[in-house]
Here is the input.
Amino acid sequence: MAGRTKRTAERETRRDRRIPTTRYEPDYREGLTSRQVQEHRLHGWVNRAVEPPSRTTKEIIHENVFTYFNLIFAVLAVLLCLVGSFRDLTFLPVIIANTMIGIIQEIRAKQVLDKLTMLNAPRAAVVRDGKRSVIDAEELVLDDIVIFKAGNQVCADAVVSAGEVQVNESLLTGEADEITKRRGDKLMSGSFIVSGQCHARLDKVGEDSYISRLTLQAKEMQEGEQSEMIRSLDKLVKCVGVAIIPIGLVLFSQAFFIQHDGFRDSVTSMIAAVIGMIPEGLYLLASVALAVSAVRLAQKKVLLHDMKCIETLARVDVLCVDKTGTITENTMKVQAVSETDEYDEEKMEPLRVLIGDFAAAMTKDNITMAAVKEYFTENSGRTALSKTGFSSATKYSSVTFSDGAYVLGAPEFVLKEKYGEYAEEITEHASTGARVLAFGTYDGEIDGKPLDHAIVPLGFVMLANPIREAAQETFEYFAEQGVEVKVISGDNPVTVSNVAKQAGIENADRYVDASELETEEELREAVLKNTVFGRVTPNQKRKFVRILKDAGHTVAMTGDGVNDVLALKDADCSIAMASGSEAAAQASQLVLLESDFSCMPQVVLEGRRVVNNIQRSASLFLVKNIFSFLLSLISLVFMFTYPLEPSQISLISMFTIGVPAFFLALEPNKNIIKGHFLTNVFLKALPAAVTDALAVGALVVFGRTFGVDSTDISTAATMLLAIVGFMILYKISAPMNKIRVGILAGCIAGLLFCSIFLKDLFAITGMTMECVMLFVVFAIATEPVLRYLTVLVEKMRFYYLKLRGRNTEE
Here is the structure.
């Protein structure tokens, strides 16, 4: 929060530094001159973001060093120095090393992601000195003339100088309606161009416009939006943070005032208990693992706008994909054209010429029109009187000539009542996987809204996108992993179903025409039962995602077009193709920079690796925390001083938790994520923690009864903790492989080395025969106690889930 406040202050300072400047209204064909651009730049009227989308290096260092637990450790270190117990400061190197690792990894991840973000930053076509060039959106200045076309996100508030576009302002207003903007109309930053092209003069830039706030919302993880894992860790850390201070004070009071231990012994025993309860490396481990994953994904040309999507994607059970750009290549080719009975070959010009005239009048504002223009190159040179670009709402585009209006669009939308006459022919074309467009004349007035009546169809144009090479393999992977795929497209459902079959998507024959779904109940039933959806409007895509989420699914949405933005914003995890629209890329949490959907399995596996490994490592940390808390309670009930020293806790933590947890967190792990993070971690840690607490507590009570010295008891307790620690490490690491065996053996060797050669540093002493006998008895007892407690906890969990009517395999 401090970082945000500081950024806000810097933003206000930067705003204050701006100097009033001369406003210009340049001709849209000439734009600003170089001198005018330089003038605005010097005066501070540049389209820079309000604040950087990522934390600065200084903020990363500050947030890693000045933490609540680091403060606690600093206070504990001062107390140990005051009582002269310098040997017990062994936890400090670990804390310093943890902090340094966190800083280095986060800075490394920041550098990699910043570099990718820069490469993927919004660009804009600008006119200056009469020349058109493409520059970074942040280099634009006030009064620049910018060319906006379909797919562009408006990068600053602007006024249309020439041309006509249809704009979707849903990210600002929440309304999905497309608005036509002509000369003199305002374009709001953050809106995106659906169709058409225009020249616009920037009226408000930088902090005066909406764009910086919108970009930050798309790129930066907001408070309350963390993943389940991060939320769980936050909850755990807060609970521990609140509990340790009163527990520490009570333990010190008991040792000093009731047990009449010396001040030094009372302080060290209290500090040992408190250190045992602090999960000092757990949050750091999660941050490091996520940062390493971000770097790994960046190396695979995957840009993360939001860290939480790594975990979310690993938990996804429904994947909504668009046909174009995901299943198929983001290119289109005209396959054929066929004439209808309405076309009169004798009285009319050749059909290819008529479509060629239509194509010549349109701009390449989408891949469909680009394919039509490329194929129909022959034209008569007629001049268009007016035109309307393609709209995802009306599903047609039109050009009006002196002899009438011509329309090219989706048959269901432009044939209207005549559709039944041609349904069989259209279905036959669509069954090959082709997208079918109807071309014909219209005798009414065209205003960009849905047509009042049917066109006179002259022919059908068949287009197709080639299936991506790795599509079948990718979708087979998701099927194996239990991820249901939903294909949501604006095309004919028969066409989409055929393409989905070719891509190997399961149940691709279950398709529905979304334009026929009228009620919310019909929509809900169709979404939950079917796989392929055709003729889907942008607003319906959003509803589809919400219905699936309401049904308890974790939903990922892929898209590359402006019509996908609404659904992308609502999905649990949003994925965009870099080759698609800027609006989709900016609204998504994850961008595939090479627009290759086949890398998605690798992204999912990375998410699983992170979550599963952190979950496993977190159990190790929690064993120590729960044990220390329980032993503190036992010591208060049975009125004995906490038996362990800080240096002994550090020794156990290092070799049974810290070192193995770090290596295990970076191991490959492809297992499907089940259940809730905190529940899984707690239930895995509980049996071992209770075993530790019972064994050590009983050892102290029996040792006191038989008159065993407290220093011997401390050493025996340390060795008992080590035995149980390695038992739980073995259990959590299962199934064992060469790497895990090596980690386990290395940690055992490290602990033995420190116990033998560095025994004075870690307060390891020799034990009397009575102490050795007690130690052997309790060491043997730990295995069956741990085993039976594990079975008991698992049974309790099973019956609890059964009672709640939930899946017992979670």
Q: What stands out?
A: The longest strand covers residues 192-204. Residues 486 and 493 are 12 Å apart (CA to CA). Residues 1-14, 217-225 have pLDDT under 50 and may be disordered.
